[in-house]
Write a structure and sequence with these properties.
Helices cover about 30% and strands about 15% of the residues. It has eleven helices and 14 strands. The strands form two sheets. The chain has an eight-stranded mixed beta sheet. The chain has a six-stranded mixed beta sheet with strand order 1-5-6-7-9-8. The protein is globular. The protein starts with a helix and ends with a strand. InterPro entries: Calcineurin-like_PHP (IPR004843), Metallo-depent_PP-like (IPR029052), MPP_Shelphs (IPR041787). This is Calcineurin-like phosphoesterase domain-containing protein.
């Protein structure tokens, strides 16, 4: 009788119950309800080469700090005080390293996903990228994980399993991943027992084919060219170009989805990989491999500059090698150096500039109103390198 009643209830349930359960779990984990995806194909294959938009913004490493992430996006005029997209048709790039060093990693991933949907509905775009910390975590390398980061994933796993239990009440509703922890040890010698559940949850979520790796990280780009700017977390060598930038994106995406084993592709490992390279990021320009940079850019049709994160720039966003290499990681996360947020802006016909928080001092430069970004101080210089512009955010 009980089975009969259950079948009757399941038969009468709306077809979208599975989506309701997903929304319930999402809200429980992130506090966010997601807007309906305006794209009929919810998981399109991202393009490696994208035409130049009228306005392009790049944001550096976020490392688990949601507050600083919002500050940077607000500084760029991409979100309002409520955290909703106000960037219109602008294209924004987040250069990778959302994970590690902080306790808001999942909340940032969910938040950026929501902004992607809002941007798309407004005719804009938000592109997220893989950094070395996304690759490390997918491989189970948790050297830079914090206690709060483990707690966040432990709570996620609890809600995820509650959602699976809800779905399993009705046969045929969906075939949930009932064994989230399959193949994962229950203990880790040498590590305090209080961290074991968080570690297990993090492995389950981020391993190739895991729910978070598949849902979020697999949608990231690893390299992308937008107009005449090439974006990458670490750097690109001519060998990477020969291998194929589109091929790099496809293979990392497939690996994140669990289709290529547990170890990341070779071009994503080691000091000369696209996510680890520091040849163009040394503090002193004379130590940068400007010849190698020039060779790589020459091999990419239409490429004028390379924009990268990964290496903290103590003096803020800057350019070297004739501004052919622009470094945008300012260590803004409190888990890094708690740097003041800065963002890079490229406006069609107006060149490249740096937006940073306005300091409380006078300036002899002309003030100009910026759409959605407060008051900017400075001039736009066509075809120049990154010019410093202060913004009251």
């Amino acid at each position: 009788m009980e089975d009969s009643n259950s079948s009757s209830v399941c038969r009468d349930l709306p077809e979208k119950l599975s989506s309701f359960v997903d929304a319930f779990v999402d809200f429980s984990v992130s506090g966010l309800f997601f807007p309906q995806n305006p794209n009929p194909n919810p998981n399109p294959s991202p393009q490696t080469t994208i035409p130049p938009p009228r306005r392009l913004v790049a944001v550096g490493d976020l490392h688990g700090d949601l507050d600083k992430s919002r500050q940077a996006l607000c500084l760029a005029g991409l979100i309002d005080s409520s955290g909703n997209w106000t960037g219109g048709s602008a294209t924004a790039v987040q250069i990778g390293d959302v994970l590690d060093r902080g306790g808001d990693e999942l909340r940032i991933l969910y938040y950026l996903e929501k902004l992607k949907l809002q941007a798309s509905a407004s005719g804009g775009s938000l592109i997220t990228m893989n950094g070395n910390h996304e690759i490390m975590n997918a491989e189970g390398d948790f050297r830079y994980v914090t206690r709060s980061g483990l707690d966040e994933f432990r709570v996620w796993a609890e809600w995820f399993q509650i959602g699976n239990s809800m779905k399993s009440l009705c046969l045929g509703l969906q075939n949930p991943n009932s064994n989230l922890f399959k193949g994962i040890p229950t203990s880790f010698p040498g590590i305090k027992r209080e961290f074991h559940e968080g570690i297990r949850a993090r492995i389950a979520a981020l391993r190739p084919g895991g729910p978070i790796a598949t849902r979020f990280l697999s949608k990231n780009q690893t390299v992308v060219q937008i107009g005449d700017s090439v974006f990458v977390h670490g750097g690109i060598l001519s060998d990477h170009v020969v291998y194929g930038l589109d091929r790099i994106n496809v293979e990392v995406r497939e690996w994140m989805c669990g289709l290529r084993g547990g170890r990341s592709p070779g071009f994503a490992r080691g000091s000369d990989s696209v996510v680890w390279l520091r040849r163009y990021s040394e503090e002193k320009e004379r130590n940068c491999d400007c010849l190698g940079l020039e060779e790589a850019l020459r091999a990419i049709p239409g490429a004028k500059r390379m924009v990268m994160g990964h290496t903290i720039q103590g003096d803020g966003i800057n350019g070297v090698c004739g501004d052919r290499a622009i470094r945008i990681d300012v260590g803004m996360s409190k888990g890094c150096v708690d740097g003041v947020p800065e963002v890079l802006e490229i406006v069609e016909g107006s060149g490249v500039r740096v937006l940073k928080k306005k300091k409380n001092h006078g300036s002899s430069l002309k003030e100009e109103e910026r759409d959605g970004g407060g008051v900017g101080i400075g001039f736009l210089v066509p075809d120049g390198g990154p010019k410093q512009v202060e913004v009251k955010a």
